[in-house]
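[job 4471] stage=fold_predict status=RUNNING
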Amino acid sequence: MTHIIARDTGPRARHRTFDDRGTGGGPVRVLMPAVAEAFGTLGLTYITVLVLTAGGPGLFGNGTKNLLAVALAQGLTVAVLVSATATVASVTLNPAITATLWATGRLSGVQTGCNVTGQFTGAIVGGLLARASLAGGDIAGGIPRLRPGVAFGQGALVETLLTFLLVSVVLGTEADYRASGRLAGLSMGAAIAMGVLAGGPLTGAAMNPARWVGPALAQGSFPNGWVYLLGPLAGALIAGLLWQHVFLRRR
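[job 4471] inference complete, writing C-alpha cells
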C-alpha cells in the first residue's frame, strides 16, 4: 500500500512524500493509489451532484438548497472517503493538490500522472452515474458556476483563496511529520465544508478541477471553465510553495 513516507530518516526531516520512490514498488504500488483516487473522486462527485440536484428546487422549504446541508454533505463525503482509503493510499481527490505535491517534490511524475488520470476518470464516471440516477435528467445544478453578478476575476480570486486554505490544511496535516496523518480526512472535510459555506454563494466553491469537469462533461455544459481549472491550481501551487519554503523549511 502507498503511505506518506519520510523524505529522509533523520530527526530533522520536515515533511513526508506521497509515493513509494526508493522502496522498490512495482506497477501495483503505482496503480493502487490511482484506483483509490478514482474511487474517492467518483463518490465525491456522485454524492455532491445528487445533493445539489435531486429533489428539484422545492427540496427545502425556502425553495433553494440549504447551504449548510450542502457544505456538510461535501465535507462529510471527503472526510469519509479519505479515511476509508487511508490504508490503501494517501488520497487527495483533487488534481490541483496532486499537481502541487509533484511540484514540491512529494510525488513522482509517474504517480502524479496516474493519480490525476484516476481523479478525472472517477469524477466523470461519478457525474454520469448521478445523471443516470436521475433517469438522464438535468444535473446542471451540480456543476459549479459563477452566480449572477459575480465577475470572472472575482470568481477566480475566490476559488484561488479557498483552494489555498484547503491545500494549507492538507500540507499541515499530511505532509508535515509533526502532524498526525490520521487527522487528514477530518481536517480536509472540515476545510471543504468551510470553503462551501464561505464561497458557495459566489462560485459554488469547487476548489477542485475534477469537481467541475465530471458533471460538466456528463451534462455537456461548461460554464466558466477557466475559473475552475486555473483558480484551484493557482491557489494550490501558492500554498505548496509557501509551505515548502517557509513553514516546512529546514532550520
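[job 4471] summary: Strands lie at 5-6, 16-17.
[job 4471] exit 0
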